[in-house]
Amino acid sequence: MIDIFALTLAHALMLIAAWRLVRRPELDDEGGRETGIARRKPVIPAEPGRDA
């Protein structure tokens, strides 16, 4: 009984998390605007021995 409850609870929490991720408004935005989540440029490490 406890095993079924634990599996059900874990799967229910994953379902809720997936549902909340799918319902985010940022997923509907196809433009390159900075809305919601901050988008960062990738950091390119400097080569050893060279000044930046």
Structure description:
The chain has 52 residues and is mostly helical. The chain has a domain at 1-25. 40% of the residues lie in helices and 0% in strands. It contains one helix and no strands. The chain has one helix spanning 2-22. The chain is elongated and about 65 Å long. The mean pLDDT is 79.
> Secondary-structure element sequence?
H
Q: How far is the first residue's CA from the last residue's CA?
A: 62 Å
Rounded mean pLDDT score: 79
Structural class: mainly alpha
SS field, number of helical segments: 1
Instruction: Catalogue the unreliable spans.
Output: none
**What percent strand?**
under 5%
Could you describe the largest sheet, including whether it forms a barrel?
Answer: none
Globally, the shape reads: elongated
Quaternary structure state of the chains depicted: single chain
Helix content: 40-55%
Gyration radius, in Å? 21 Å
Total beta strand runs = 0
Record the SSE blueprint:
Blueprint: H1 2-22
Top keywords for this entry?
mainly alpha; single chain
